[in-house]
Design goal:
Alpha-Beta Plaits, alpha/beta, Aminopeptidase, binds zinc ion, 8-stranded mixed sheet
Length: about 450
């Protein structure tokens, strides 16, 4: 313990020796509150016109007047002037966001180094986040320990060559061709709580099997914990990279500039690049040079295709937003079966609320968030899944995207309560599956 403490001190001193906390050094987070309709309108206008100056951290479509905003030192005075003119109150929430990110990355590295995961030692814990190779090692370990119930398959490689693996979880009765619930996580690199929740869910279904046996009678669960491992590993390097969202495949512009990565959740070939996505390779919402330009989205697409006729529920875990989004995300229309989508989403939201009091919203992506074309949930729904959801976990940490390690346990358990309830409802609602014939 003492040795670990001194190791921690060394890491800490190394960090303090660095003059800057990266690109977010000196950035502040303000909590702002609009008192009236005029103030809310002013905030909306501000958010849409100045995204390069201020980053609004909680200003979705369901914006109720309060928000957090991240602002750079050089733009702080201008932001305050606008807020004061519009009589919008603001309180300082974080005086150096870069330092917070740096502390979090260092803490992650220290926790990882002090107790790396070793195969054969049981479940991956919830006391810290895990690396992609640790998660893959855990899947292999489960396959070795539960060979009659678990099957691990290499389904592809990321751009940088990391192995993408799925785990198929069964009840071991050997019955082939069951319906399938497919879950993925880690589309967006910075949303660490997503793979953490997926890994916890795998642990529940496999290692706590008796408690959840009813979920596996007529259904197999297939899980891909980290869709975008290159991005996920990149975010673990430093405070500079902690909030990276996209993949890591570079694109060279005509003027020779190189921009990295595509938003994998805008890269699917369904209403691709129509709305809520960017054609600018440097944008965080870049849809890619063409649909399925990313090896990682090809992997997800091919899994969805192999599940045609069997795939009933597709759940893609993201953060943040506290919501179950269902199709469509390409425009303000609803699928014919939207009432089924809504009903099952509400089952999940109510289970989370009953577990922990956390409030989730349920609605179409477009209604709750705004258009986001080329996302995986729309693609899967159009390809024949009866129910598809993008599940947005709650805002946590300073930016919403970086729950501290101490929040992991609470968040993964409450989210699992929702996933479990949705899974249970699906097994009852679609006992024999539902062939949509596409
Ligand atoms: Zn996301």
């Amino acid at each position: 313990m003492l040795k670990q403490f001194f190791q921690f001190l060394l890491v800490l001193c190394g960090a303090l020796a660095l003059a800057s906390a990266g690109r977010y050094d000196g950035y502040k987070v303000y909590e702002i509150k609009a008192k009236n309709l005029a103030g809310r309108k002013a905030l909306r206008a501000l958010a849409s016109e100045v995204s390069d100056k201020y980053e609004f951290l909680t200003l979705g479509r369901n914006f109720n007047g309060s928000a957090s905003v991240l602002v750079s030192p050089e733009n702080e005075a201008a932001l305050k002037a606008v807020l004061e003119k519009q009589q919008i109150s603001h309180t300082l929430q974080n005086s150096n966001f870069g330092r917070t990110l740096q502390d979090e990355v260092l803490q992650h590295r220290m926790l990882h180094q002090s107790k790396p995961y070793a195969a054969g030692t049981g479940r991956l814990g919830t006391e810290r986040y895990h690396t992609h190779s640790e998660i893959n090692a855990y899947l292999d370990d489960l396959a070795a320990r539960y060979p009659s119930r678990v099957y691990v398959k290499i389904v592809g490689k990321s751009y940088e060559g990391r192995l993408l693996k799925t785990i198929t979880i069964t009840n071991g009765d050997g019955r082939a061709g069951k319906n399938v619930i497919f879950i993925d996580g880690g589309f967006h690199a910075n949303e660490w709580i997503s793979p953490a929740t997926v890994v916890f869910s795998i642990g529940e279904l496999v290692e706590n099997f008796e408690e959840h046996a009813e979920l596996l009678n007529d259904y197999d669960w297939i899980v891909l914990p980290v869709v975008n491992p290159d991005g996920y590993e990149y975010t673990q390097l430093s405070s500079e990279t902690r909030l990276w969202r996209k993949t890591r495949q570079p694109v060279t512009l005509s003027n020779g500039t190189v921009c990295y990565g595509t938003d994998p959740n805008r890269n699917f070939d369904f209403h691709w690049l129509e709305k809520g996505a960017s054609s600018d390779p440097c944008s965080n919402f870049y849809a890619g040079p063409r649909p399925f330009s990313e090896p990682e989205t090809v992997v997800v697409r091919d899994i969805l295709h192999t599940l045609r006729g069997r795939g009933i529920l597709y759940l893609s875990l993201h953060s943040y937003g506290s919501a179950f989004y269902y199709p469509w995300g390409w425009g303000p229309v609803l699928p014919d079966t939207w009432e089924d989508l809504h009903e099952v989403g509400v089952v999940g939201a109510e289970a989370i609320h009953a577990y922990n009091g956390t409030e989730y919203e349920v609605g179409s992506s477009t209604a709750l968030y705004g258009e986001a074309c080329g996302a995986s949930d729309d693609y899967a729904f159009n390809d024949g899944f009866a129910l598809t959801y993008t599940m947005e976990l709650p805002f946590a940490g300073s930016s919403g995207f970086e729950p501290p390690a101490s929040d992991i346990d609470r968040l993964v358990r409450e989210t699992w309560a929702g996933i479990r309830a949705v899974g249970k409802r699906v097994t009852v609602k679609y006992p024999l599956g539902r062939k949509r014939g596409r």
